[in-house]
Amino acid sequence: RADGRALRKLPVHVGLVVTEEEPSYADMASLVVWCMAVGISYVSVYDHNGIFKRNNSRLMDEILKQQQELLGLDCSKYAVEFANHDKTGQVLNCQSTLKVLSPEDGKADIVKAAQNFCQLVAQQQRTHSDLDVNMLDNLLSSTNGFPDPDLVLKFGPVDSTLGFLPWHIRLTEIISLPSHLNISYEDFFSALHHYAACEQRWGK
């Protein structure tokens, strides 16, 4: 937590995007627990094959195990809420909230939101002029309750976020790292340090 306080700015929402073919549950769990420990409130985990989302329970079990191992008796101070639908009952003093996402939460979610808006217009509950950024944000289900990511840590050799929340990352800082496999806390904290030092011009 002291490391987080030492940074000039700390992201509120971090996306962890794996572009490698073989995702590691243990290494991803370490990254999530480190995010929690430095004080990041929202964490999204994504891989383009949807492996983490399909095996959500396995990832959550690994996170809880590493929480205990890395944080020990202080574990209760660093509680995590699992925001995915099949784990909504598992809330531990929510201080960090985690979502596990797959490509269906990206472009497909935008298509579904557009369809829902068209239905509202057809039912005369909305007019076409009501559609703006806030309206679309409210219609998107994949990030309901989550702020847009401030920072995406992209792991792997592919120079693309491979469909990770295309609507939400228009102002997001993206930092590429070679791999999430065997990643060290020093590599993770160095990326946070890089984010804290960067000047965001918001398109200006």
Rounded to an integer, what's the Rg over CA atoms?
18 Å
The counted number of beta strands is 6
Largest sheet: 6 strands, parallel
> How much beta, percentage-wise?
15-25%
N/C terminus separation: 33 Å
Strand order of the largest sheet: 3-4-2-1-5-6
CATH topology-level fold name of the largest domain = Undecaprenyl pyrophosphate synthetase
Classified by CATH, the class of the largest domain is Alpha Beta
State the CATH superfamily name of the largest domain: Decaprenyl diphosphate synthase-like
State the helical fraction.
25-40%
Compressed to H and E, one letter per element, the order equals: HEHEHHEEHHEEH
SS summary, helix count: 7
Structural class: alpha/beta
Q: What is the mean predicted local confidence, pLDDT?
A: 82
Give the CATH architecture of the largest domain.
3-Layer(aba) Sandwich
**Poorly predicted residue ranges:** 85-94
Task: Provide the number of structural domains.
Answer: 2
Instruction: Tell me, briefly, the overall form.
Output: globular
Subunit structure: The active dehydrodolichyl diphosphate synthase complex is a heterotetramer composed of a dimer of heterodimer of DHDDS and NUS1. Interacts with NPC2.
Membrane topology: Multi-pass membrane protein
Family: Belongs to the UPP synthase family.
Protein name: Dehydrodolichyl diphosphate synthase complex subunit NUS1
